[in-house]
Task: structure prediction
Amino acid sequence: MKKIIILIVFFFLTNSTEISFCQTKIKYPETKKVPHIDNYFGIDVPDPYRWLEDMESPEVKEWVDVQNEVTFDYLESIPYREKIKERLTELWDYPRYSAPFKSGENFFFYKNDGLQNQSVVYIQKDLNSEPEVFIDPNKFSEDGTVALSTLSASKDGKYVVYGMSNAGSDWVEFFVIDIESKKQLKDHIKWVKFSGASWYRDGFYYKRFDKPEEGKELISKNDNQKVYFHRVGTDQSEDVLVYEDPEHPNRFFYISPSEDERYLYLSISEKGENGNSIYFRDNRKADLDWHPIVEGFEYDYWVVNNIDDEIFIITNKNAPKRKLVKLNPNQSQIIFEDVIPEKVDVLSDVTLARNKFIATYLKDASDHIFVYDVHGNLLEEIKLPTLGSVYGFRGKKEDNELFYTFTSYTHPSTIYKYNVDEGKSELYRKTEAKYNPDDYETKQVFFESKDGTKVPMFIVNKKGIKLDGNNPTLLYGYGGFNISFTPHFESSLLVFLENGGVYALANLRGGGEYGEEWHKAGMVLNKQNVFDDFISAAEYLIENKYTSPEKLAIEGGSNGGLLVGAVMTQRPELFKVALPGKGVLDMLRFHEYTIGWAWITEYGTSEDSVQFRNLLSYSPLQNLKDGVNYPATLVTTSDHDDRVVPMHSYKYIATLQEKQAGDAPVLLRVETNTGHGFGKPLSKIIDVETDIWSFVFSNLGMNPSY
Result:
């Protein structure tokens, strides 16, 4: 199982004396209202800005241009905006590496020299040889908006398949490179989405959708997913359709071979369900039928690896915090046997190497690594420097050297080499970021939510700050999709910290920090718990004199944008600044676009009477009220976001500008040629963060020290 890592940009504040920065009251663009009412189960819901959903229309594009013009006029009037950009550029300008991974006899790794828009893939014959450039995504486009997505090497070390994403879209095109000659082959695969490449013999499995209607590529609903097999050196038209299910258009499929290619696995998940089914084929046999290992969608199952006949799987069946089990699929009755039983902490990842299991556990939102033998006996714990996050331990069953990366809020990514036989770690590569880690401290606190639930929160600040209630503070949250937020280093956070700000991240219900029960406590009809947790986190920071409502900003992206949008409508007086980024803000219509239907499992749907009333109770768009003083708000989105389509942000800001009673600015910033976040060039990351920081600094009365 791969640990799900979601990449979301964090933005932050600083602390100083009040500044004499004055602006005239903003005149917002006129946004026409077209009468439109939807009736849900006898309840009329007005939607006068429905016309903004037609994101390809010239009228909507003109509206976006005018909104951007107003926003950039505001941002450009902030006197220290360029200084913030200069400082951000300095902080990003240091070499960054990934851990190496091996294919055949070669090692690959990513490196960014500092200010490159995209990281470059290098290849080396062994760890001591001189690395050579293998793929340089910066040459894909002049402005860096075409990014490398998938990179997967064949098991024999002959080929690499890589994916290219244009302008941040989830749509990906695949290409194949011959490793020895470094030449690109004729293979070209289109309309791939939410897919890697799973190599098997002389080709690979991948997932795609049918070609969407021209002009609707970024908004068309993505259903009827199909799995194909592509043989290297052939045209896409020759690819073999391996699996589809037209009777169930809202299902996801994933096919992958075992490392030894003995088994082929098929995983199926379905809209409205949390778990997945697992089927298999034994490639030693002529039988091409898929045979069930487990059917139904009540629980999750992730195949780790196999040893001969036995398959090892991570599951949350009868184990909300997950366990490792084994089974023999060729027996007349498949029996699951515990190998590593469920523990107090959450099992998030397992790697098999040299007849040992390297298991990653999540304890209070921080990673811990343990090594077991194949019978589940604990051998050792791999000690980590401090509270933080670990990525890696990828390799083949026979590999003795594995690499992993450690990071925390005050530790840049540090790469270690682990000798499996000896059970020893050694430093492989240390990142030299331009800051002094001894200036800062991280602590973890636990606060009580509205219903009495204890919720953890990380707090990062400069050493020696005074708890006088006057510190500019940014509170970040997500709370959804079983995703865990663990400590990691972010260069941009230093702009905030070095000016005396406080950064807090609350590990809300809905995430995966404490297993499936924690997740379920913040989904569908329990979604309000997430908002209550976040509000309680803010109240904790205020009560414990970290900050005050006049100095508190909140931020979140995607599902976290929903979080910010919801709490700023429920408790507008509690926050001075709100930053909903790429948010799901119209909870009644999110399922109508691209992959939104897949989120019904998490949120529910307006097509169900009970779930509709719950969604209506907190949907940010529908809960904005006349005559309310809302916080200073900067809504951010991207014109090529085909995951959370920008219509959410468009309709929300139009309504917020209409209803805002106070003088605090409420603005929309639309980035061009970028998507939901993945693959965004560094130049655009710095531009966006510059503007968000400038907005936050000016509205919290902060004066940066440069």
